[in-house]
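User: Can you recover a sequence for this backbone? Please restate the input before giving your answer.

Assistant: Of course. Working from this structure:
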């Protein structure tokens, strides 16, 4: 046999095998592709007025009007009978005691079970109080309106599915590295920066996460339906002091809606150790809008092979603490770094009162929840805490999904959750109070639980698809 004939036969055989495999591959993909992606969205204003106690500081305060509405913004994604819902609220935190009843109302109206709904707080510090923390108490009138707005937004987004029966999904991992930094700075005296003077700052004590993932849902013609974006910096900063505000992330979202169309929903990343210390609010809004727009323009289409969710109870313990050591840490920092001795003593008294309330509960076991959602190969991890950035990065690093977003302050709130090294370094985020009371090691356990859920979620999707796909390299 000649060389040409031998190679010709080989090529013919290869082409025959390839052609025979194409129908099989196509038949395997027809099922998922045949189900159109439906997307609905809605934004409902959360009622608020100037008589309500505002959160976000050591002491409560009253606002004088609003510079932009506070909203509950919801997106429902559906394919066939499968649905997932995400609702992001312009409040400092949400808590399970009012989120869970709202989700039962959603179940009754839409059929979406609670484990497939993520309710998130953007963590704006310029909204009425939803929680007992520091010297602030929950404003029950605001919480009642918030709970109703959560249900109304998700129900309205579900009804909006009919208006967008055939959508496409695009994704891009963007970046914004100038709005935010690791704010737990090591100071010259060995303490960790919180507020006040920092002219002796030595270095950051942990990482900053600049990633800005953008999920774009749009019509086949490219008209925006909903855009989700995620970034990891504390949501502190209104344009006008003394006003209610969704702060710079919420302001950016609302302006993008007016300029580009479609609902914009923000998810706060792992930012327990990250703040914006240098960029003004106007400039932060400009930079965030530009980063979201760039990422959305560059986003590439992604197939959605399935929708899945896991939500499970998570047990943790209230920490055991040394009262004298806590008192010394708070008083020492406040007297050295705060403006006046009077301010220092007033602040220390707030922490002293919180510790007195928590002391009888030391060692107590409590239960919250951790949730993971998957929209194709994009995963969202909902944790009920102000999670240190290093822990969020650890979840991303070990996730079996190529694209993983952290949504802290989801479904509940258990305060700051540092990593073990963060506990050792100390600082405000580790001082015992209603803002920080979980036992050391809770953060690492949250990471392990989230990664376990992600692995099981990935397996669910593989079983649904009938094959095992590997983690891709697209960004």
């Amino acid at each position: 046999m000649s060389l040409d004939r031998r190679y010709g036969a080989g090529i013919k055989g290869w082409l025959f095998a390839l052609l025979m495999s194409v129908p099989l591959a196509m038949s395997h993909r027809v099922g998922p592709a045949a189900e159109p992606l439906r997307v609905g969205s809605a934004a409902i204003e959360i009622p608020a007025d100037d008589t309500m106690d505002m959160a976000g500081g050591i002491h409560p305060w009253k606002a004088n009007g609003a510079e932009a509405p506070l909203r509950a913004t919801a997106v429902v994604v559906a394919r066939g009978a499968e649905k997932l819902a995400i609702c992001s609220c312009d409040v400092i935190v949400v808590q399970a005691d009012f989120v869970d009843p709202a989700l039962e109302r959603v179940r009754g109206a839409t059929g979406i079970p609670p484990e497939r709904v993520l309710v998130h707080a953007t963590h704006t510090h310029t909204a009425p109080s939803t929680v007992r923390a520091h010297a602030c108490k929950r404003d029950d009138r605001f919480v009642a309106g918030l709970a109703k707005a959560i249900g109304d937004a998700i129900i309205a987004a579900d009804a909006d599915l009919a208006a967008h029966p055939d959508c496409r999904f695009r994704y891009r991992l963007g970046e914004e590295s100038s709005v935010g930094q690791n704010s737990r700075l090591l100071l010259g005296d060995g303490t960790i920066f919180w507020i006040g003077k920092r002219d002796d700052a030595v270095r950051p004590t942990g990482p900053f996460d600049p990633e800005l993932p953008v999920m774009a849902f749009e019509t086949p013609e490219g008209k925006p339906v909903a855009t989700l974006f995620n970034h990891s910096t504390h949501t502190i900063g209104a344009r006008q002091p003394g006003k209610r505000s969704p702060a710079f992330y919420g302001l950016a979202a609302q302006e993008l809606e007016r300029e580009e169309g479609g609902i914009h929903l923000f998810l706060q990343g792992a930012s327990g150790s990250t703040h914006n210390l240098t960029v003004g609010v106007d400039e932060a809004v400009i930079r965030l809008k530009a980063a979201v727009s760039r990422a959305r323009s560059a986003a590439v289409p992604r197939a959605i092979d399935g929708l899945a969710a896991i939500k499970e109870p998570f047990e943790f313990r209230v920490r055991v603490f040394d009262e004298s050591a806590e008192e010394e840490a708070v008083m020492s920092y406040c007297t050295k770094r705060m403006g006046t001795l009077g301010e220092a003593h007033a602040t220390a008294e707030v922490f002293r009162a919180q510790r007195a309330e928590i002391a009888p509960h030391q060692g107590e076991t409590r239960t919250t929840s951790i949730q993971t959602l998957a929209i194709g190969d994009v995963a969202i991890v909902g944790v009920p805490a102000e999670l240190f950035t290093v822990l969020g990065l650890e979840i991303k690093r070990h996730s079996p999904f190529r694209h993983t977003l952290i949504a802290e302050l989801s479904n509940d709130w258990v305060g700051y959750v540092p990593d073990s090294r963060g506990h050792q370094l100390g600082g405000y985020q580790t001082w015992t109070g209603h803002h920080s009371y979980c036992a050391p090691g809770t953060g690492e356990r949250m990471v392990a639980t989230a990664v376990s859920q992600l692995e099981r979620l990935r397996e669910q999707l593989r079983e649904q698809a009938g094959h095992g796909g590997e983690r891709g390299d697209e960004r």
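That completes the design. DSSP finds ten helices and 21 strands in the chain.
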